Amino acid sequence: RAKRPAGAPDKKLAREVKKVGVVGAGLMAGQLALLFVRRLKVPVVITDIDQERIDKGVGYIHGEIDKLAAKGRLSPDATNRLKALVTGSLDKSAFGDADFVIEAVFEELSLKQKVFGELEGYVSPEAILATNTSSLSISEMASQLKNPERVVGFHFFNPVAVLPLLEIVRGDKTDDASLATAFSVSKQLKKSSVLVKDAPAFVVNRLLTRFMGEIIAAVDEGTPFDVADRALTPLGLPMSPLVLLQLVGPAVAQHVNETMHAAYPDRFGISENLQRFVKAGKTAVWQQDEQGGQVVDPEVVALWE
Ligand code: 3HC
């Protein structure tokens, strides 16, 4: 028999999830909605600040379902069923009967607090409010709510469909039933979950930020991008650090870095060059040249000079 993950409460306390809400319709939110509908096979409703974003989000999820069907992973029936389960709504009353709502909005504490505060006006007091925050405090996010005991950190990794790990975070008020529900949902999602402390950037991003920060610092100090990025090849990483930066999104990485700098200024520096890179709207260090090879984007190199 599979062992209960360390720190997980008795699974008998878990509540059934019959409808999921996703706040945000960006790329991360879309990946989450796709995973939930594929694994839980329950209605999933997504929302965002305008109808255009919502339509784009639903379009992305439907497109990904079509891609799975084209790979032969879904029958035509299952394809239609899954697509019909995903809807978008600008009106949050569509979340009224959701048992599990996860937010994946911009990485800003006050915004996430506002989103949860508004949701409390619609969902039942037991509905789980989960956050996919990369680095922010779960306890602070829940601090102004009427029912802070249902807030749980649910931190996925990119690409969500592929990477098995899920960091589950207990806030200072999270109760056993909410945590048990989180573990039960994680199991249905076929993720391998670990319970981590509510500390800045939890565990994985704490390590990753330091790791990325040192690569950037090496470049700041004059090591060329390609040399710094390829230096770790012998370790057999699935992708180089600066390609991973592109996958995560430099703006997200920068937010996590700021959280870590605020918490541990002696260990996490701020690279002004990276800030300029994010401000310039750059999303990648590497680009393809005319022969299809990978070269460092000269505009990025110029930003560092
Ligand atoms: N989105 C969705 N699916 C993707 C994908 C993407 N961006 N990239 C690859 N995949 C899928 C492919 O479709 C394929 O699926 P299939 O087997 O079902 O057809 C599968 O992944 C394997 O892809 P490939 O064979 O093309 O490529 P690789 O074997 O090179 O694997 C990878 C790609 C899984 C992305 C691998 O390079 C990897 O694990 N990289 C490290 C990723 C990582 O460390 N992520 C953590 C980032 S930290 C984070 O997200 C936290 C946040 O808070 C910042």
Concise description?
The chain is of the alpha/beta class and 305 residues long.
Query: What is the CATH topology assignment of the largest domain?
Result: Rossmann fold
Order of helices and strands: EHEHHEEHEHEEHEHHHHHEEH
Bound molecules: 3-hydroxybutanoyl-coenzyme A
- Multimerization state: single chain
State the end-to-end CA separation: 58 Å
Helix/strand class = alpha/beta
Per DSSP, what share of the residues sits in E-state strands of 2 or more residues?
Answer: 5-15%
User: What's the helix count?
Assistant: 12
Unreliable stretches covering 5 or more consecutive residues: none
Domain 3-hydroxyacyl-CoA dehydrogenase NAD binding: 19-198
Organism: Saccharopolyspora gloriosae
Family: In the central section; belongs to the 3-hydroxyacyl-CoA dehydrogenase family. Belongs to the 3-hydroxyacyl-CoA dehydrogenase family.
Domain 3-hydroxyacyl-CoA dehydrogenase C-terminal: 202-283
Could you explain the architecture of this structure?
The structure is a single chain. With 305 residues, the chain is an alpha/beta fold. It has two domains: 11-196, NAD(P)-binding Rossmann-like Domain (Rossmann fold), CATH 3.40.50; 204-303, Orthogonal Bundle (N-(1-d-carboxylethyl)-l-norvaline Dehydrogenase, domain 2). It contains twelve helices and ten strands. Strands 3-2-1-4-5-6-7-8 form an eight-stranded mixed beta sheet, with helices on both faces. Strands 9-10 form a two-stranded antiparallel ribbon. Helix 4 links the parallel strand 4 and strand 5. The N and C termini lie far apart (58 Å). 37% of the residues are buried.
